[in-house]
Amino acid sequence: MDLSAINWGLLLASLMVAATPILLAGIGELVVEKSGVLNLGVEGMMITGAICGFAVAVATGNPAVGFVAAALGGAVLALLFGILTQFLLSNQVATGLALTLFGLGLSALLGQGYQGIKPPSAPRLDLGPLSDLPVIGPILFRHDLMVYLAIALVAVVWLVLARTRAGLILRAVGENPAAAHALGYKVVAVRLMAIAFGGACAGLGGAYLSLVRVPQWTEGMTAGAGWIALALVVFASWKAERVLLGAWLFGGMTVLQLNLQAAGLAIPGEYLSMSPYIVTIVVLVIMSSRRGRAALAAPAGLGKPFHASG
Amino acid sequence: MIRLEKRPMPSRLWTWATPVLAVVLTMIAGGLMFAALGKDPVAAIRVIFWDPLFSEFAWYYRPQLLVKGGPLILIAIGLSLGFRAGIWNIGAEGQYILGAICGAAAGLAFYPLESPLIFPLMVVAGALGGMAWAMIPALLKVRFGTNEILVSLMLVYVAEQLLASMSIGLLKNPEGYGFPGSRSLSQWSSSANPELIAGWGLHWGTVSALLAVAAAYVLLNRHILGFQIRLAGQAPRAARFSGVNPKLLTVFCLAVSGALAGLAGVFEATGPAGQITIDFNVGYGFTAIIVAFLGRLHPVGILLAGLLMTLTYVGGGTAQSQLGLPFAAIQAFQGMLLFFLLGVDVLSNYRMRLRRRGVA
């Protein structure tokens, strides 16, 4: 193997791109879980966003419109989960799984006839002199708008959760829905908004895969990215800034693995392709073995249904 | 305004009626979906649900139900034990793959020897392979408190890569002209899992599925372990006080579901699929989740639900060739079924009350 064949600058640049889908889906799921809802349907919402975004971008020739459609598609699907779990009080784990199974089928259905098409490419953001900086320019400042929007979103979520009244209410609903209800907050409404936001983020993440990262449509193309996003929230111990860190770690792993394959490492490609999933498991083990702190970090009401009459 | 009132006990009537209601609602919504795809909805529903059972060609389709239903029921029975206890094994697809790989490897090690012992050996190896794969999330949960949902799922993607590597590497047919995939297991008489009665579609996978249904029924209703499983799911705190060991229960439930998924894998590889290939797995592990819930996590319910779900596979295949309905539509249809089931479930746990606005 020839390690010098790997362009490390390029690797770091593609790390930013590889991290963006799971970063978007992960920060959305963080908000959902902060409201006390466990939505395991991220994979289904991501893949639905991927095809909605792709189809609309192809039809309009405008990737930006595609991203909007992807967010809408993800949010609509998430609201289906919201109606079932919040009004019909269904089991959140089972409903999340149903969302994924349905999303995978629906996206395959919508995607008929889109295979092998090239989507309109998302323009790179021109940051003028910043983009021309040596070394740092190509790594940090020559990406498309979504990379920066995703990072900005993390900052906004962090700010809202930590510093605003809305964030406080959201956390109260997640920690103790009964108390929040007694104080007059609309628990179900807050949770529905969080669920829709999570769905929109997952949809954007999926569309980033199909429009920028890959960029094409294939059935089941999210290939577990949604589940990695769920693991990301655990890794981040429900803290927004750590989602960013985790996404870069997993993105880095994915990119490194691809680069090693290209560089002709003596390990067969299949084993390298496993590595992001194995790393996810290892990280989950490490995070959960520090039991005391991890247990404190999860919102207390996570996954429990709430019904006002008790 | 409609108000929900919790029932003191789940309604017995609705517990049985909700799956039927969910199926009816899915047919209506699915019909709308088929219409949106430009197909005649009535014809589509008839091809999927009626023709395989009652048309003049039903003699061809009925055996298919037993062939395809076996693995689904087998996996769903295993999953249902864990689901009842609140242990979520979502990685049956991976355990199914590992069962197939281990079973096939154990048999192929003896190729071309002919012996009646090879097939039983493969079956045992398959069950152990699936069980070992399920032990990873089980032991990580017991030892480190790691979430079994995420771990078992990640292992599905690992298993898929392992399967790809096996079918182009270690298990590749040396006489296969470079094509990926193992030797044909269904044509080597020592490893074949043929129809037991000609024309019935019954193979060892179906037989073991029926045995699993009976065993699960006895376990849940007549054995202390089954009682503990039910208790752990319904009242975890009470279970703790009455001396249920949650760690042991986790290991047991995952071991059983892994072994059953592994069995399904090895029976499929030696029978209907016939060999190990890259795309050998077709999502039975995931569909079995729907089957388990549709069957209300009850062994007999799962048997019926498994046959119904198989009907959508068999009928869906026919709809694909006759009406040009894409297979993805069937997948969406199956997902929809689970949605409706979870939605109407509210009727068995809650009472609907009409109430005028403003009255507290």
UniProtKB/TrEMBL annotation, chain A:
Cellular component, GO, one term: plasma membrane
Keyword Membrane applies: yes
Subcellular location: Cell membrane
Stored InterPro entries: ABC_transp_permease
CDD domains per the UniProt record, alphabetical: TM_PBP1_transp_TpRbsC_like (cd06580)
Annotated transmembrane regions: 6-25, 37-58, 64-84, 96-117, 145-162, 183-209, 221-238, 245-265, 271-287
Membrane topology: Multi-pass membrane protein
Domain of life: Bacteria
Molecular functions per Gene Ontology: transmembrane transporter activity
Chief location: membrane
UniProt KW keywords: Cell membrane, Membrane, Transmembrane, Transmembrane helix
Name recorded for this polypeptide: ABC transporter permease
Naturally occurring in which organism (per UniProt): Pacificitalea manganoxidans
From TrEMBL, chain B:
Cellular compartment(s): Cell membrane
Pfam families: BPD_transp_2 (PF02653)
Keywords assigned by UniProt, alphabetized: Cell membrane, Membrane, Transmembrane, Transmembrane helix
InterPro entries recorded: ABC_transp_permease (IPR001851)
Transmembrane region(s): 12-37, 65-83, 95-111, 117-140, 149-171, 197-220, 248-267, 273-294, 301-319, 325-347
One GO cellular component, as annotated: plasma membrane
Key word Transmembrane present: yes
Protein name: Sugar ABC transporter permease
Subcellular location, principal: membrane
Transmembrane keyword on record: yes
Topological category with respect to the lipid bilayer: Multi-pass membrane protein
Species whose genome carries this gene: Pacificitalea manganoxidans
GO molecular function, one term: transmembrane transporter activity
